[in-house]
Design a protein that fits this description.
alpha+beta; four-stranded mixed beta sheet; 5 helices; flat
Length: 288
């Protein structure tokens, strides 16, 4: 078009897929998926001489349900724009914008369990995802600090101590370990000092950095730019079947002409869900 030099505003860089190192991705072929938590047995009992053996019952304790959501977005290029020879330029840029919107939506959805995990996002047991009182047959289990704290040496060490103290549904130790810390961008400098310094930070004492020297968080930390709380931090543990992403339908695109208007329409669609099966797969603090 005469006088049109550039179409701009759609060429911004974007963050990489930040959910990939948090969630385990599995395929889905149903409207929803369910995963059931099973309890094992309690500790074995002493059998007095001549007495009968003690029986115990394994059982289901709770069910985590993942309901797949359909995510879709569309745009149209008008018949008039096609007549004015803008079709190629608009189609090229708008399809990139469509892909960008779909990708960022997925990142926002993947951050929901963290952003809402202290309130509305619940675990399969009915408690908030991050709670000090997840109910079990043998009592309660915590996957958050007893006293909320900002990220520092003390709170990080206490988080790792609490992770190591986790128990299963029957109260048996599970030997859990922290593997990777997930933080908002506001905490990246604090995390780097805590994880990379050879000595303790913020002190004149000539002490080693125990977290680093012991390899307590072997996968380091990762910044997630879609976390909304600037002082909350999260630790992914090695407990299996924790954070999960079910993919029902991968991203697909379609285009078609509209007879009534003469417009050309483009649509992108995918179906997926993010969630958690075993809350022991992640530990968190909301910050002070």
């Amino acid at each position: 078009e005469p006088g049109l030099n550039a179409l701009f505003g759609l060429e911004y860089k974007q963050y990489e897929n930040q959910t990939a190192d948090i969630f385990t991705t599995e395929s889905s072929d149903r409207a929803f998926e369910e995963e059931v938590m099973l309890s094992g047995f309690a500790q074995a009992q002493v059998k007095p001489e001549g007495a009968g053996v003690t029986y115990d019952n394994a059982q289901e304790t709770f069910t985590a349900r993942y309901t797949n959501e359909t995510i879709a977005l569309a745009f149209a290029i008008t018949e008039e724009a096609i007549e004015d020879n803008l079709y190629d330029r608009l189609a090229s840029r708008y399809t990139k914008a469509l892909a960008r919107s779909m990708a960022q939506t997925k990142q926002v959805k993947g951050a929901v369990p963290f952003n809402n995990g202290f309130g509305t996002f619940t675990s399969g047991d009915g408690s908030a995802l991050f709670a000090t009182n997840h109910p079990t047959i043998a009592g309660t289990v915590s996957n958050t600090l007893a006293t909320a704290a900002d990220l520092n040496e003390t709170s990080l060490e206490q988080s790792l101590i609490d992770i190591a103290a986790m128990t299963d549904e029957r109260g048996l130790k599970i030997a859990a370990k922290g593997m990777k810390m997930i933080i908002p961008s506001a905490l990246q400098f604090t995390a780097e000092r805590l994880m990379a310094s050879a000595g303790r930070t913020g002190t004149a004492d000539n002490d080693i950095n125990a977290i680093k020297s012991m390899g307590m968080i072997p996968q380091g930390y990762s910044v997630n730019n879609y976390l909304t709380d600037t002082d909350a931090f999260f630790i992914i543990t090695d407990v299996p079947n924790g954070m999960k992403h079910f993919e029902r339908s991968p991203l697909t695109t379609k285009m078609e002409g509209d007879f009534d208007t003469g417009n050309v329409r483009y649509k992108a669609r995918e179906r997926y869900v993010f969630g958690v099966s075993d809350y022991r797969g992640v530990f968190a603090s909301p910050g002070a």
